[in-house]
Amino acid sequence: MNFLNPTFEENQSNLIEYLSIAVGTEIIGLRKPPQPTIGGIENRNYYIYAKTDKENVDFVLRCEPEYIPQWRKSYDLYDLHREYLILQELHKLNLKLHTPQVWGFDHGETFGVPSFLMECLPGKHLRWTFKPSYSDQLVSQLAELIAYISTIDYREADSLESILPVRTMCSDLAWLDENSRTFRNDPLVQYSLSWLSERRPNARPLTFCHGDPNPQNFLHKNGVIYAAIDWEFVCLKNDPLGEILCVGWLHQKPELKTIFCQAFGRDVAELLWFEVCGLFGATYVNVNKKNFEANRKKLTQLVGYRKH
């Protein structure tokens, strides 16, 4: 079935009916047309400005994207229904950060593709690019919240543990090996894989991880980071330290690595293995032709590769 875009006027009666059923409150109309959200490489997400007979209500409609890259599919990195179930479970827990409430998972009957409705949270997104105007306090808050997420007891929720994918350091290596095979004629590939295998840290107990804790996935207002969104990559890991490499600031301001590692109670030297792992994936799996040579050069330096 074709995607029925909710921003098209001819689909808005279906949209209003869906909203009413999903939240259990009659939606009498839209205050203005739906608008695509900003951000998300493959996502179809839309701001919905609705109204009841008593108040204005805002939502985000999350729809399955048109295209899902193969590297995501190969590691089960995209499952809209799982994300919906996880957000349902998280909303039941007494967390010290807000997660969006969700309603009305639709398997494709309304818009032609799987979709669900999310609470539209107020506040501003932190930016991917580090802004000097961000206070030290805000940066420290982000570090502490990412570390806090790894302490969430997923076993307290009714069914959270059963729906969370597990990503271990061992499975990460196997995935990198499998998905870099088109570059096997590059000697740096096998050298890096051997480097990672020989230096793999000791496994720790499985911990809960956001999966994509980049600054844009955190909302702040009045100087406080209060919410985290975009939980599509949430998983269990046997060492969550590599999570912080998703924070783009760390690559612009390397001195911030110490702040984020300290939030985890770890030494910054422990980050190297995860940096190599992430850079290998960025170079040979999630390939960006524009940055390929620069990434390869940096990877060469990190693993100390020398041509023989």
Percentage of residues assigned to helices: 25-40%
What is the tally of beta strands? 11
Q: How many distinct domains?
A: 2
Alpha-beta content class: alpha+beta
Strands ordered across the widest β-sheet: 1-2-3-5-4
Q: What is the name of the CATH architecture of the largest domain? A: Alpha-Beta Complex
Strand content: 15-25%
CATH class of the largest domain: Alpha Beta
Fourth CATH level, the homologous superfamily of the largest domain: Aminoglycoside phosphotransferase (APH), C-terminal lobe
Mean pLDDT: 91
The string of secondary-structure elements, in order, is HEEEHHEEEHHEHHEEEEHHHH
Give the count of helical stretches.
Answer: 11
End-to-end separation in angstroms reads 55 Å
Task: Provide the gyration radius in Å.
Answer: 21 Å
CATH topology of the largest domain: Aminoglycoside 3'-phosphotransferase, Chain: A, domain 2
Largest beta-sheet details:
5 strands, antiparallel
Q: Per the principal axes of the C-alpha atoms, what is the gross shape?
A: globular
Low-confidence residue ranges: none
